[in-house]
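[job 0412] stage=fold_complex status=start
inputs:
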Amino acid sequence: MNEVEKFKEKLKDKGYKLTTQRRVILDVIMENREKHLSSEEIYDLVRQKYPEIGLATVYRTLLLFEELGIVYKLNFDDGRNRYELYHNEVHQHHHLICLKCGAVIEMEGDLLEDLEKAIEETKDFEILDHNVKFFGYCSKCRKKND
Amino acid sequence: MNEVEKFKEKLKDKGYKLTTQRRVILDVIMENREKHLSSEEIYDLVRQKYPEIGLATVYRTLLLFEELGIVYKLNFDDGRNRYELYHNEVHQHHHLICLKCGAVIEMEGDLLEDLEKAIEETKDFEILDHNVKFFGYCSKCRKKND
DNA sequence: TAGTTTATGATATTCATTTTCAATTGTCAA
DNA sequence: TTGACAATTGAAAATGAATATCATAAACTA
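[job 0412] stage=fold_complex status=done
writing structure:
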Protein backbone atom coordinates (compact mmCIF):
# COMPACT_ATOMS: atom_id res chain seq x y z
CA MET A 1 0.00 0.00 0.00
CA ASN A 2 1.52 3.28 -1.04
CA GLU A 3 1.48 6.52 0.87
CA VAL A 4 -1.57 7.97 -0.80
CA GLU A 5 -3.61 4.84 -0.12
CA LYS A 6 -2.55 4.90 3.49
CA PHE A 7 -3.67 8.49 3.63
CA LYS A 8 -7.08 7.61 2.22
CA GLU A 9 -7.45 4.86 4.75
CA LYS A 10 -6.53 7.06 7.66
CA LEU A 11 -9.22 9.51 6.68
CA LYS A 12 -11.86 6.84 6.18
CA ASP A 13 -11.05 5.15 9.46
CA LYS A 14 -12.09 8.21 11.34
CA GLY A 15 -15.07 9.05 9.15
CA TYR A 16 -13.43 11.94 7.34
CA LYS A 17 -14.16 12.58 3.71
CA LEU A 18 -11.70 12.53 0.88
CA THR A 19 -11.88 15.91 -0.77
CA THR A 20 -9.92 17.46 -3.58
CA GLN A 21 -8.61 20.10 -1.21
CA ARG A 22 -7.18 17.51 1.16
CA ARG A 23 -5.61 15.64 -1.72
CA VAL A 24 -3.96 18.76 -3.10
CA ILE A 25 -2.65 19.78 0.32
CA LEU A 26 -1.19 16.30 0.81
CA ASP A 27 0.42 16.45 -2.63
CA VAL A 28 2.11 19.75 -1.84
CA ILE A 29 3.44 18.42 1.44
CA MET A 30 4.69 15.23 -0.21
CA GLU A 31 6.40 17.18 -2.98
CA ASN A 32 8.26 19.18 -0.36
CA ARG A 33 9.41 16.44 1.95
CA GLU A 34 12.72 17.95 2.74
CA LYS A 35 11.27 21.37 3.53
CA HIS A 36 9.63 22.73 6.64
CA LEU A 37 6.77 24.71 5.15
CA SER A 38 4.64 27.11 7.13
CA SER A 39 0.86 27.14 6.82
CA GLU A 40 1.01 30.24 4.65
CA GLU A 41 3.67 28.76 2.40
CA ILE A 42 1.55 25.65 1.96
CA TYR A 43 -1.43 27.85 1.13
CA ASP A 44 0.55 29.64 -1.58
CA LEU A 45 1.72 26.38 -3.15
CA VAL A 46 -1.72 24.83 -2.98
CA ARG A 47 -3.26 27.84 -4.72
CA GLN A 48 -1.06 27.25 -7.73
CA LYS A 49 -2.77 23.90 -8.23
CA TYR A 50 -6.18 24.78 -6.89
CA PRO A 51 -6.79 28.55 -6.84
CA GLU A 52 -10.30 28.33 -5.34
CA ILE A 53 -9.02 27.04 -2.03
CA GLY A 54 -9.55 29.12 1.10
CA LEU A 55 -6.92 29.85 3.71
CA ALA A 56 -9.11 28.48 6.48
CA THR A 57 -9.27 25.13 4.75
CA VAL A 58 -5.50 24.89 4.72
CA TYR A 59 -5.32 25.64 8.44
CA ARG A 60 -8.12 23.19 9.19
CA THR A 61 -6.54 20.49 7.09
CA LEU A 62 -3.12 20.87 8.68
CA LEU A 63 -4.72 20.54 12.09
CA LEU A 64 -6.50 17.41 10.91
CA PHE A 65 -3.36 15.95 9.35
CA GLU A 66 -1.50 16.51 12.58
CA GLU A 67 -4.21 14.71 14.52
CA LEU A 68 -4.09 11.82 12.07
CA GLY A 69 -0.33 11.58 12.31
CA ILE A 70 0.14 12.52 8.68
CA VAL A 71 2.23 15.58 9.42
CA TYR A 72 4.33 16.70 12.34
CA LYS A 73 4.24 20.25 13.63
CA LEU A 74 7.54 22.02 14.07
CA ASN A 75 8.36 25.20 15.91
CA PHE A 76 11.35 27.24 14.82
CA ASP A 77 10.52 30.23 16.98
CA ASP A 78 9.73 32.37 14.00
CA GLY A 79 6.14 32.95 14.99
CA ARG A 80 4.49 30.48 12.67
CA ASN A 81 3.72 26.80 12.65
CA ARG A 82 5.70 24.68 10.28
CA TYR A 83 4.97 21.15 9.15
CA GLU A 84 6.76 18.19 7.74
CA LEU A 85 5.53 14.83 6.52
CA TYR A 86 5.46 12.39 9.39
CA HIS A 87 8.04 9.67 9.20
CA ASN A 88 9.24 7.30 11.85
CA GLU A 89 12.58 8.97 12.12
CA VAL A 90 10.86 12.25 12.87
CA HIS A 91 11.51 11.91 16.57
CA GLN A 92 15.06 11.08 15.88
CA HIS A 93 16.08 14.25 14.19
CA HIS A 94 16.96 17.64 15.44
CA HIS A 95 17.30 20.96 13.75
CA LEU A 96 20.16 23.37 13.55
CA ILE A 97 18.90 26.88 12.94
CA CYS A 98 21.27 29.56 11.70
CA LEU A 99 20.75 32.85 13.46
CA LYS A 100 22.23 34.79 10.57
CA CYS A 101 20.71 33.40 7.39
CA GLY A 102 17.85 31.41 8.87
CA ALA A 103 18.93 28.16 7.25
CA VAL A 104 17.54 25.02 8.85
CA ILE A 105 19.83 22.03 8.80
CA GLU A 106 18.50 18.61 9.61
CA MET A 107 20.37 16.28 11.88
CA GLU A 108 19.69 12.61 12.28
CA GLY A 109 20.53 10.30 15.07
CA ASP A 110 19.20 10.24 18.53
CA LEU A 111 21.83 10.86 21.09
CA LEU A 112 19.11 11.92 23.47
CA GLU A 113 18.08 8.41 24.34
CA ASP A 114 20.28 8.15 27.38
CA LEU A 115 19.09 11.49 28.62
CA GLU A 116 15.47 10.49 28.16
CA LYS A 117 15.93 7.28 30.06
CA ALA A 118 17.53 9.16 32.93
CA ILE A 119 14.64 11.62 33.03
CA GLU A 120 12.00 8.93 33.01
CA GLU A 121 13.66 7.28 35.96
CA THR A 122 14.69 10.20 38.13
CA LYS A 123 11.75 12.49 37.46
CA ASP A 124 9.03 9.90 37.00
CA PHE A 125 8.05 11.72 33.83
CA GLU A 126 6.80 9.76 30.84
CA ILE A 127 8.28 11.29 27.71
CA LEU A 128 6.15 11.16 24.59
CA ASP A 129 7.93 13.67 22.43
CA HIS A 130 10.80 16.06 22.47
CA ASN A 131 11.75 19.24 20.77
CA VAL A 132 15.41 19.88 20.31
CA LYS A 133 16.80 22.83 18.46
CA PHE A 134 20.28 24.26 18.28
CA PHE A 135 20.81 27.89 17.40
CA GLY A 136 24.06 29.24 16.05
CA TYR A 137 25.95 29.99 12.86
CA CYS A 138 26.05 27.67 9.87
CA SER A 139 29.26 26.97 8.01
CA LYS A 140 28.46 29.45 5.21
CA CYS A 141 27.85 32.30 7.61
CA ARG A 142 30.91 31.42 9.63
CA LYS A 143 33.05 31.78 6.51
CA LYS A 144 31.53 35.16 5.69
CA ASN A 145 32.43 36.39 9.15
CA ASP A 146 36.14 35.79 8.66
CA MET B 1 28.06 44.84 42.99
CA ASN B 2 24.57 43.48 43.49
CA GLU B 3 22.10 42.52 40.82
CA VAL B 4 20.25 45.79 40.75
CA GLU B 5 23.45 47.78 40.33
CA LYS B 6 24.52 45.51 37.50
CA PHE B 7 21.18 46.14 35.94
CA LYS B 8 21.61 49.91 36.18
CA GLU B 9 25.02 49.63 34.63
CA LYS B 10 23.82 47.51 31.74
CA LEU B 11 21.24 50.12 30.89
CA LYS B 12 23.65 53.03 31.16
CA ASP B 13 26.28 51.30 29.07
CA LYS B 14 23.98 51.28 26.11
CA GLY B 15 22.53 54.73 26.70
CA TYR B 16 19.19 53.55 28.01
CA LYS B 17 17.48 55.45 30.75
CA LEU B 18 16.60 54.18 34.18
CA THR B 19 12.88 54.61 34.58
CA THR B 20 10.49 53.61 37.32
CA GLN B 21 8.73 51.29 34.92
CA ARG B 22 11.90 49.39 34.14
CA ARG B 23 12.76 49.12 37.82
CA VAL B 24 9.34 47.74 38.73
CA ILE B 25 9.42 45.22 35.90
CA LEU B 26 12.85 44.03 37.00
CA ASP B 27 11.61 43.70 40.59
CA VAL B 28 8.70 41.54 39.54
CA ILE B 29 10.97 39.28 37.51
CA MET B 30 13.46 39.01 40.36
CA GLU B 31 10.73 38.18 42.84
CA ASN B 32 9.61 35.31 40.61
CA ARG B 33 12.93 33.72 39.79
CA GLU B 34 11.69 30.21 39.84
CA LYS B 35 8.70 30.93 37.61
CA HIS B 36 8.38 31.21 33.87
CA LEU B 37 6.10 34.21 33.58
CA SER B 38 4.47 35.27 30.36
CA SER B 39 4.38 38.91 29.26
CA GLU B 40 0.76 39.20 30.32
CA GLU B 41 1.45 37.66 33.72
CA ILE B 42 4.29 40.10 34.25
CA TYR B 43 1.98 42.94 33.25
CA ASP B 44 -0.59 41.87 35.86
CA LEU B 45 2.02 41.65 38.62
CA VAL B 46 3.58 44.97 37.67
CA ARG B 47 0.22 46.71 37.76
CA GLN B 48 -0.18 45.76 41.41
CA LYS B 49 2.87 47.90 42.18
CA TYR B 50 2.48 50.50 39.49
CA PRO B 51 -1.06 50.67 38.13
CA GLU B 52 -0.36 53.43 35.60
CA ILE B 53 1.88 51.20 33.50
CA GLY B 54 0.89 50.39 29.95
CA LEU B 55 0.95 46.95 28.40
CA ALA B 56 3.14 48.15 25.54
CA THR B 57 5.79 49.27 27.99
CA VAL B 58 5.96 45.80 29.47
CA TYR B 59 6.38 44.25 26.03
CA ARG B 60 8.97 46.84 25.05
CA THR B 61 10.89 46.38 28.28
CA LEU B 62 10.97 42.61 28.01
CA LEU B 63 12.38 42.95 24.50
CA LEU B 64 15.00 45.32 25.83
CA PHE B 65 15.87 43.10 28.78
CA GLU B 66 16.33 40.18 26.45
CA GLU B 67 18.66 42.20 24.27
CA LEU B 68 20.65 43.25 27.34
CA GLY B 69 20.89 39.68 28.57
CA ILE B 70 18.86 40.42 31.67
CA VAL B 71 16.16 37.91 30.87
CA TYR B 72 15.98 34.81 28.74
CA LYS B 73 13.03 34.10 26.49
CA LEU B 74 11.43 30.69 26.76
CA ASN B 75 8.98 29.01 24.45
CA PHE B 76 6.66 26.38 25.84
CA ASP B 77 4.51 26.14 22.72
CA ASP B 78 1.53 27.64 24.48
CA GLY B 79 1.31 30.61 22.17
CA ARG B 80 2.96 33.17 24.37
CA ASN B 81 6.46 34.26 25.22
CA ARG B 82 7.74 33.44 28.67
CA TYR B 83 10.74 34.87 30.46
CA GLU B 84 13.09 33.99 33.22
CA LEU B 85 15.91 35.92 34.84
CA TYR B 86 19.12 35.21 33.03
CA HIS B 87 21.59 33.13 34.96
CA ASN B 88 24.64 31.29 33.77
CA GLU B 89 23.07 27.94 34.27
CA VAL B 90 20.23 28.93 31.98
CA HIS B 91 21.78 27.06 29.11
CA GLN B 92 22.19 24.05 31.26
CA HIS B 93 18.63 23.37 32.06
CA HIS B 94 15.82 21.81 30.17
CA HIS B 95 12.11 21.74 30.69
CA LEU B 96 9.68 18.89 31.06
CA ILE B 97 6.21 19.97 30.01
CA CYS B 98 3.20 17.92 31.03
CA LEU B 99 0.71 17.55 28.21
CA LYS B 100 -2.14 16.94 30.63
CA CYS B 101 -1.85 19.55 33.40
CA GLY B 102 0.62 21.93 31.78
CA ALA B 103 3.10 21.72 34.63
CA VAL B 104 6.63 22.77 33.77
CA ILE B 105 9.36 20.88 35.57
CA GLU B 106 12.88 22.18 35.52
CA MET B 107 15.81 19.86 34.93
CA GLU B 108 19.40 20.72 35.52
CA GLY B 109 22.51 19.26 34.13
CA ASP B 110 23.75 19.35 30.63
CA LEU B 111 23.94 15.96 29.10
CA LEU B 112 23.85 17.59 25.72
CA GLU B 113 27.48 18.59 25.75
CA ASP B 114 28.68 15.52 23.91
CA LEU B 115 25.97 15.94 21.32
CA GLU B 116 26.88 19.58 20.82
CA LYS B 117 30.53 18.80 20.36
CA ALA B 118 29.67 16.18 17.75
CA ILE B 119 27.49 18.65 15.88
CA GLU B 120 30.10 21.38 15.89
CA GLU B 121 32.59 18.97 14.38
CA THR B 122 30.55 17.05 11.86
CA LYS B 123 28.27 19.83 10.69
CA ASP B 124 30.65 22.77 11.04
CA PHE B 125 27.90 24.59 12.90
CA GLU B 126 28.77 26.92 15.76
CA ILE B 127 26.24 26.42 18.52
CA LEU B 128 25.36 29.45 20.59
CA ASP B 129 22.20 28.29 22.25
CA HIS B 130 19.88 25.35 22.40
CA ASN B 131 16.29 24.75 23.19
CA VAL B 132 15.40 21.41 24.63
CA LYS B 133 11.93 20.46 25.76
CA PHE B 134 10.42 17.13 26.62
CA PHE B 135 6.70 16.61 26.38
CA GLY B 136 4.85 13.90 28.22
CA TYR B 137 3.02 13.10 31.44
CA CYS B 138 4.19 14.20 34.86
CA SER B 139 4.11 11.85 37.82
CA LYS B 140 0.87 13.29 39.21
CA CYS B 141 -1.00 12.84 35.96
CA ARG B 142 0.43 9.37 35.49
CA LYS B 143 -1.03 8.37 38.84
CA LYS B 144 -4.43 9.76 37.94
CA ASN B 145 -4.46 7.67 34.80
CA ASP B 146 -4.15 4.40 36.68
C1' DT C 1 -30.07 9.19 -6.89
C1' DA C 2 -31.70 11.19 -2.61
C1' DG C 3 -30.72 12.37 1.76
C1' DT C 4 -27.72 13.09 5.45
C1' DT C 5 -23.56 14.57 7.14
C1' DT C 6 -19.24 16.63 6.63
C1' DA C 7 -16.41 20.13 4.39
C1' DT C 8 -15.64 24.45 2.28
C1' DG C 9 -14.95 29.53 1.35
C1' DA C 10 -15.60 34.10 2.74
C1' DT C 11 -15.56 36.72 6.40
C1' DA C 12 -15.38 38.04 11.07
C1' DT C 13 -13.02 37.25 15.33
C1' DT C 14 -9.52 36.27 18.60
C1' DC C 15 -5.26 36.78 20.84
C1' DA C 16 -0.50 38.03 21.45
C1' DT C 17 2.45 41.34 20.03
C1' DT C 18 4.05 45.62 17.67
C1' DT C 19 3.58 50.24 15.96
C1' DT C 20 2.19 55.00 16.08
C1' DC C 21 2.24 59.40 17.99
C1' DA C 22 1.59 63.07 21.11
C1' DA C 23 2.81 63.97 25.74
C1' DT C 24 6.08 63.08 29.48
C1' DT C 25 10.33 62.21 31.72
C1' DG C 26 15.35 61.28 32.39
C1' DT C 27 20.00 62.93 31.64
C1' DC C 28 23.73 65.94 30.94
C1' DA C 29 25.98 70.19 29.82
C1' DA C 30 26.00 74.95 30.94
C1' DT D 1 19.51 74.17 39.06
C1' DT D 2 17.89 74.70 34.75
C1' DG D 3 16.90 73.93 30.14
C1' DA D 4 17.29 71.37 26.00
C1' DC D 5 17.10 67.24 23.73
C1' DA D 6 16.69 62.61 23.22
C1' DA D 7 14.64 58.63 25.09
C1' DT D 8 10.44 56.75 27.06
C1' DT D 9 5.78 56.28 27.97
C1' DG D 10 0.55 55.28 27.64
C1' DA D 11 -3.43 54.81 24.86
C1' DA D 12 -5.05 53.30 20.98
C1' DA D 13 -4.67 51.52 16.48
C1' DA D 14 -2.46 48.09 13.61
C1' DT D 15 -0.54 43.72 12.64
C1' DG D 16 -0.25 38.84 11.77
C1' DA D 17 -1.14 34.11 12.64
C1' DA D 18 -4.67 31.19 13.76
C1' DT D 19 -9.56 30.01 14.77
C1' DA D 20 -14.63 30.39 14.68
C1' DT D 21 -19.01 31.29 12.27
C1' DC D 22 -22.34 30.26 8.98
C1' DA D 23 -24.60 29.63 4.70
C1' DT D 24 -23.56 26.94 0.65
C1' DA D 25 -21.51 22.99 -1.59
C1' DA D 26 -19.65 18.71 -1.94
C1' DA D 27 -18.97 13.60 -0.36
C1' DC D 28 -20.56 9.24 1.23
C1' DT D 29 -24.26 5.69 2.10
C1' DA D 30 -28.52 3.43 1.75
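[job 0412] summary: Residues 15-17, 19, 21-22, 52-57, 60, 79 of chain B lie near DNA strand D (CB under 10 Å from a C1').
[job 0412] exit 0
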